[in-house]
Fold:
Amino acid sequence: MMQAKVLKGLEKLEAKGPELRYPDTGIIQDGLFELRVGRKDISRTFFAYAKGRKIYILRTFIKKTPKTPKAEIALATSRWEELKDGC
Structure:
């Protein structure tokens, strides 16, 4: 069930891109954003925008506490840095 919700959220992100705003998306830090899906079991997808209409999906996980784990942010940031170096 959660996978279907995440897929629907990703399709919405693909269609609207940077026009998609709160409460669907939020800024984590400079260049890193989150897609919020669900109310009870909350899924978070970290993503970043690249040149053109490219969107890089960096990490998706189920958030179990009110605060986003720093390790998840660090992993997404690391992946984004690797991708930027290759672009």
